[in-house]
Every structure is written in C-alpha cells, then in structure tokens.
Write a structure and sequence with these properties.
The chain has two domains: 170 residues, Ribonuclease Z/Hydroxyacylglutathione hydrolase-like (Metallo-beta-lactamase, Chain A, 4-Layer Sandwich), CATH 3.60.15.10; 129 residues, Rossmann fold. The protein has eight helices and 16 strands. The strands form three sheets. It has a six-stranded mixed sheet, covered by helices on one side. It has a six-stranded parallel sheet with strand order 11-10-12-9-13-14, with helices on both faces. Strands 1-2-3-4 form a four-stranded mixed sheet, with no helix packed on it.
Length: 315
C-alpha cells in the first residue's frame, strides 16, 4: 500500500493522518496520535463520540461528515470509548477492506466490544506485535488492581498515572466497583463529562472543585488519578501536603515491556497483543494483510512466517 489512503468512489480517504490529496479524513479515535487531520480537515469521518472528545479535550472544532455511500461502514474496535474501524465494501472490483485503527479483542466496561467482519484486505495495527508480550486476562488484572488498592488505602493515599482519555475512565469504573470514588485532575474531569453525556456513569471528585471538602478528602485516605507521567514527584508533593504515605501505580500495556518508577504497575492494555492479532485475523480471514505503526515490519515478518500474505505499509 503506497500511501495511507483508501480510494472509494469520489472519496480519497486518509487513515488517522492528514494525507495530501485526501478529501475525507478518517479518525479512528480521539487519542492525540490519531487526530492530526482534525484541525484542517473539511470532512472528518468518525464516530459522534470521537468528535465530541476531540472538541472537549483539544478545543478543535470537528467538521464531521456522514457519507451517503452504503459501502462505507464504521465498526467498533474495542479500543476506547467511540473508537471505530473503517470497513469498505466493493473496494476495487468487488473486494472489501478493513482498517483496524487501534483495537483489542478483550472487553472493557467503557467501550463497546469489537465488531468482526470478514474482509479481503486488512490493514492492522502493530503496537504490540512481539510474541513475547502476552497480556493477562483483563478481569484478572482488574481484580489485582482492586485487591492492591483495598489493601493499601488504609495505610496511605494511592496515586495512579493513566492516560486522561480512556484509561483514566476505566480506572474510575474499577474504583467504583471497589466502592471508591477517586479524585481526578481537571483535564480528566473534562473528558469525563463527554462520557457522562453519552450515558456512561462515573463516580469521582475533581481536584479543582469545591466538592473535595464535602467528600471529606482532607480527613481520610483517597485514590487519585492523574495524567501526569512523573507520578513519583507528584506523590512526594502530596505526601508533604497531607503528611501521609503515598503509594504510586501505573496502568498501561507497556507495563509488560518497561519498568516504571512506581510502587506497582498493572498491564491494563486497550490494545491487542500478538495473540489477539492472530485471533482477529482468523476471524476476518483476509487474503492480504498490510501492517502499520512503529512495529509494522516486525509484525509483517511474523505474520508472513506464519503463512499469511503480509507486508508492511509504506507511509
């Protein structure tokens, strides 16, 4: 695939980036590395939820467009709230093509499960393509998080570092299951409003609102969630303010690869690992696979060695 676009009828559709010559820009979800087309695009193809998140979190007005073509479909990807795959039927002489965007096969409480549809050509994300990385069962991770939090909270404050969009909201849900109403940053709170507007219930306090005093935060230990990656430094500041021990944690799929400067790390991922990728391919049954992302060459090679017709995309 020479450029990262798909031509269909009168549309030249870019995929999660702004390509020269595109007249319709697909944005699979609202994470920062996928929204480069939003600022200048005249026609954005995305879910309503993704457009709302972009406008709320980044202050970008999204020119969302609904094509009338029956052959263009948006399918849930399971990655985060509002995330979609792009599926096109009758692509080049009756073929079908699917672009995954970021996706996962395990289910989350804050995103719709992935939709699977067979396609002749699949363009697949390569974020976690190393067979050495295998994510544990998601429910087991959640149970481990709750166990650790309930064990530690009597001894001090707990501070999680997580992406403000997607992972933070899932952590709020997990804390709510444990009967805990976490304290979140202003940026996370603003994102939460879009989730709540769309029917996802989240119980939390904002660190920048007066509800902290009514929630009694000053009188007891609490769980905090921040998008700040330097969570250790923030923990030291909190410890100085509250005169209590502060435990630190991070929740990310990269916890299976890297060591973070926290007391504990949980491999809670919203991406597919290599084995989920294989599961996805077995269900989609593509005749041709293109891989994309930082590990596209590695994934294409691994898939080719497994007998698939796979090549890295060129972009």
């Amino acid at each position: 695939m020479g450029v990262f676009t798909i031509s269909f009828n009168e549309y030249n559709i870019s995929l999660d980036r702004r390509e020269q010559g595109s007249n319709l820009d697909f944005i699979s979800h609202a994470h920062t590395d996928h929204i480069t087309a939003a600022k200048k695009s005249q026609k954005v193809l995305s879910s309503v939820e993704t457009a709302e998140l972009i406008e709320s979190a980044y202050g970008i007005s999204v020119n969302r467009f609904e094509p009338n073509e029956k052959g263009i479909k948006l399918l849930d990807s399971g990655h985060m709230f509002g995330s979609k795959q792009l599926y096109i039927e009758d692509y080049e002489n009756g073929k079908s093509i699917i672009y995954t965007g970021d996706f996962q096969m395990q289910e989350s409480d804050i995103s719709k499960p992935i939709e699977i549809k067979q396609a002749d050509i699949a363009i697949i994300d390569s974020t976690y393509s190393n067979p050495k990385v295998r994510f544990p069962n998601r429910q087991e991770i959640i149970e481990n998080i709750i166990l650790w939090v309930t064990n530690k909270i009597s001894n001090g404050i707990i501070l999680f570092s997580a992406y403000r969009m997607g992972k933070a909201q899932e952590l709020i849900k997990i804390m709510n299951k444990a009967g805990i109403k976490p304290v979140v940053t202003k940026k996370i709170s603003e994102v939460n409003k879009v989730y709540e507007k769309n029917g996802i219930s989240l119980a939390y306090s904002s660190a920048y609102n007066s509800d902290l005093e009514s929630d009694g935060i000053n009188d007891h230990n609490f769980v905090g969630i921040t998008e700040d990656r330097n969570v250790r430094m923030l923990a030291e500041k909190l410890g100085g303010v509250y005169k209590r021990r502060v435990y630190t944690a991070v929740a990310t799929g990269f916890a299976e690869i890297f060591r973070f400067n926290t007391d504990v790390q949980f491999p809670l991922s919203d991406h597919a690992d290599f084995y989920q990728i294989l599961e996805y391919i077995s269900k989609v049954q593509p005749k041709k696979i293109y891989t994309y992302g930082k590990s596209k060459e590695f994934l294409a090679k691994s898939l080719a060695e497994s007998g698939y017709d796979a090549l890295p995309s060129i972009y």
